[in-house]
Amino acid sequence: MQNEQLAAKRxxxxxxxxxxxxxxxxxxxxxxxxxxxxxxxxxxxxxxxxLVNPWNGIDNSGYLPKxxxxxxxxxxxxxxxxxxxxxDASRQEGFSPVLTAGYRSGEEQxxxxxxxxxxxxxxxxxxxxxxxxxxxxxxxxxxxxxxxLGLAVDFREDEALFTWLRDNAWRYxxxxxYPAGSEETTGRDADxxxxxxxxxxxxxxxxxxxxxxxxxxxxxxxxxxxxIFE
Length: 230
What we know:
- By secondary structure, the chain is α+β, with helices and mostly antiparallel strands.
- The protein is built from eight helices and six strands.
- The chain has helices spanning 2-48, 77-92, 106-121, 128-138, 159-168, 183-186, 200-209, 213-221; strands at 67-70, 73-76, 99-101, 152-155, 174-178, 191-197.
- The strands form two sheets. It has a four-stranded antiparallel β-sheet with strand order 3-4-6-5. A two-stranded antiparallel ribbon has the order 1-2.
């Protein structure tokens, strides 16, 4: 009799056990989903933090940005929505941002570099080598410019806007790429107009550290950090 009662109790408990197991399995799947999303996000951020500077070019890299357009400039699709959100947010604060540059092909970068060299030579005070070296600091030689990644934009000169961008661009995944005092690290002149998309996670860390992209990659990925592709 006692065995029959125990068997009956087990039958009653069995559905609840199955339900509990099903809920546990669902919870594990949800947790795995969040972890997978995090892994994918980190993978995306690695691509977005591709390092391009005078010592780490994109020649023969195979990098092909997927281009779209935002307010008259071309940019990689990964940055389209964040850039538009940043522009809209700045306008809500009373600013009038104007984009002056986005993606440039190697040919376009060469033309800009040559034009800059000619302008520097026109003063008659610099040798050709000196003019080319200065142009490399200002606009970058072809193959070493972030504009060729499609992840960088330039803004029209606006000091009030630049103050807002320095404080808020990281919220949208952008960083001031060439802050004052970083010339030796970045190989480029300070440039308050130039912002680079690196993804929200990296931008938040770089902003909090008050670091350059080179500093950030050196800290987290080692001194030999190279371009990382999807």
